[in-house]
Each structure stands twice: as C-alpha cells, then as structure tokens.
C-alpha cells in the first residue's frame, strides 16, 4: 500500500491516501472526479469494463492500473461504487486487500455484513457506506453516510470536496440501512405512482383521478410525470436496489411486497437516454405496464 504508517493507512488525515475507485459509473466517476479535484490520487481498473466507463474515468482524471488485483496492491482505500447486484463480486475481486474497503452501494444491511466478511477474511478493514444525493460536483453536493469502527477514518478523505461524509454509527449495516429506508420512500413512491396511474388508466378513471388530485393532492400529477422520467432513464438500474430494500423489510419482519412490486415496475420501464424523456414518457412507461384491454374479473 502507498501510505501505510504506524498510524494506519489514513493517518495523514486522509489527504495522502491513494484511493482505488471500483468502478467509474455515473456516481463513481463523479466521486473520483471530486477526489482528483481536491488533489488526491485515484486509481481504477479497466479490465472488463465498457468503453463508457473508460471515457468517464479519463474525463475524471483517474489512473488506470488494469486489474482490480493490481489496484488492491497499490492503494490505501478502495471505494466500491457499482450496481448493487455487483457489490459482492467487486469485493471478491480484491479479496486479500489489506487496506480499508468502503462499500458505498445501495445494498441491504445483510448484504453489507456479507461484504464485510469477504474483506475482513482477507485481512482488510471494512466501512459500510450509502450515498444519498446526486453525483457530486462543485455546485452539487451529496452525502456519504458511513458506519463501522473505521468509519471516522474516511471523513478526512472527503475534506474539501462536495461529498459530505457523515458517520452514522460504529455498526456495519447502519449506513446501508439508512440508504435503504431513504430510497424505500424516494424510489418506492415513484413506482407506486406509476402503478396507480396504470390501474386508473385500465379502469378508465384516470382523467377523474387527475381532477381529484388537482383539487386535493396537487403535487401528484407533476410527481407522476417525474416518476416516469426517472423510471425510463434510471429504472432498470433500480431493480436490484428495490430487491435489496425488499430484503431489508423482510429482515425487519415486515412485508417485502411494496418494493418487490417497485422492482417489477422498474424492470418493465423503457430504457431512454436522459435527454429523450419528455411529456410523452409517462404514456411510454404505462404502455409497458400490462393494463391495455385489462378488465377486472367478475366475482
Ligand atoms: N447515479 C446516482 O445518481 C446515484 C445516487 C446515489 C447512489 N448511487 C449508488 O451508486 C452505485 C452505482 O450507481 P451508478 O449510477 O454509478 O451506476 P452505473 O452508472 O450503472 O455504473 C456502474 C459501474 O459499475 C460497473 N459495473 C456494472 N456491472 C458490473 C459488474 N457486474 N461487476 C463490476 N462492475 C460492474 C459499470 O461498468 P461497465 O458498465 O463499464 O461494465 C460502471 O462503471 C449504486 O450502488 C447506486 O445505488 C448512485
């Protein structure tokens, strides 16, 4: 590792730590970019990644070291920012890493503890994390919630960046739990609104529902358009996150059906580029939810 000292890898207030970023997707590239802008060295591993990730890494100024294994030999801290379904594979790809591994993904507390087991079995230290907010930029701050006994060591890494790093507790799973319950509302209600519009359309009462909403819940017509835009540009990426939230509910002894249904709805959403979503997008999303021609069964 680049910076191991008597005080541990992040002893120099996080400032001198070399960071590995796995992988530069929309969020990861932005995190890497703000670390670079604050003077940190950030490495990544291009092996197996797409041309899009390479382009984002280059724009963010990240240094490519080829493989995750090589990266794990050269950095003090690894920040994992990847789709939730890939989080365990990413942790396994650096098994044996001796520094601090921060999982910043939208996973359940149970998955976070599994990730911790993978890293600590190889001699590394694990910090649980969850990002709430947009990809960070100088004018667009975001929050990184952290938990675990080494969580406070990561705060310094994000000094002078638009990432507000906050410690939740010293329990692995707490930061992930926070991300789960936050997204349970923000994304879960988006899916619920789309389901409601689809049912109202199937039953032929959508115009009347919209009139009633305008009278009594005036934010909902606009929010359902926003939900359709989000579902059509990002919904496919949220399916695994909804499943992680469903598991989180089940582990707490609550029904997991809300977010299993949300996963079902997002899984059926079209895949548009961000600029392609417009006023027609709600119709495109609803057209893929199976309501045309549906009539309730007689009892
Ligand atoms: N985007 C946001 O606004 C946002 C907000 C809050 C939290 N987050 C969290 O940030 C994490 C990443 O989200 P994102 O939006 O940045 O995702 P993303 O844009 O889809 O990027 C994911 C990155 O992971 C790589 N990847 C995909 N599948 C992989 C696999 N099976 N194994 C290893 N790497 C894989 C991708 O590489 P290739 O495509 O090149 O293969 C890409 O570099 C998620 O946990 C999400 O919850 C994101």
Explain what this protein looks like in three dimensions:
The protein is an alpha/beta fold. The chain has 2 domains: 19-171, Rossmann fold, CATH 3.40.50; 178-287, Orthogonal Bundle (N-(1-d-carboxylethyl)-l-norvaline Dehydrogenase, domain 2). Helices cover 48% and strands 13% of the residues. The protein has 11 helices and 8 strands. The chain has helices at residues 26-37, 51-60, 68-74, 87-93, 109-121, 152-155, 174-202, 206-216, 220-251, 257-267, 281-287; strands at 19-22, 42-44, 63-64, 77-80, 100-103, 125-132, 142-147, 163-169. An 8-stranded mixed sheet has the order 3-2-1-4-5-6-7-8, sandwiched between helices. α2 (51-60) links the parallel β2 and β3 (63-64). It is elongated, with a radius of gyration of 21 Å. It binds NADP nicotinamide-adenine-dinucleotide phosphate (NAP). The site of NADP nicotinamide-adenine-dinucleotide phosphate has 24 residues, from α1, α2, α4 and α9.
């Amino acid at each position: 590792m680049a910076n191991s000292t008597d005080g541990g890898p992040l002893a120099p207030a996080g400032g001198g730590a070399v960071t590995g970023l796995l992988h530069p997707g929309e969020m990861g590239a932005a995190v890497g970019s703000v670390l670079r802008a604050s003077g940190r060295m950030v490495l990544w591993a291009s092996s197996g990644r797409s041309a899009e990730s390479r382009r984002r890494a280059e724009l963010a100024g990240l240094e490519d070291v080829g493989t995750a294994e090589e990266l794990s030999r050269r950095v003090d801290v690894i920040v994992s920012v990847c789709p939730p379904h890939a989080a365990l594979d990413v942790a396994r790809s650096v098994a044996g890493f001796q520094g601090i591994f921060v999982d910043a993904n939208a996973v359940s507390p149970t998955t976070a503890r599994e990730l911790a087991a993978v890293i600590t079995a190889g001699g590394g230290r694990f910090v649980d994390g969850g990002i709430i907010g947009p990809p960070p930029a100088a004018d667009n701050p975001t929050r990184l919630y952290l938990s675990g006994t080494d969580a406070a060591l990561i705060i310094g890494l994000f000094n002078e960046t638009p990432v507000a790093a906050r410690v939740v507790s010293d329990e692995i799973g707490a930061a992930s739990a926070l991300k789960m319950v936050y997204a349970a509302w923000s994304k879960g209600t988006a899916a619920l609104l789309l389901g409601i519009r689809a049912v109202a359309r199937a039953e032929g009462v959508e115009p009347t529902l919209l009139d009633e909403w305008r009278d009594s819940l005036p934010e909902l017509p606009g929010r359902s358009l926003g939900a359709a835009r989000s579902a059509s540009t990002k919904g496919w990426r949220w399916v695994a996150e909804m499943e992680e939230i469903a598991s989180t509910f089940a582990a707490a002894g609550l029904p997991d059906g809300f977010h299993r249904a949300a996963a079902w709805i997002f899984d059926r959403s079209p895949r548009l580029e961000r600029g392609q979503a417009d006023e027609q997008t709600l119709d495109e999303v609803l057209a893929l939810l199976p309501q045309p021609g549906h009539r309730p069964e007689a009892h």
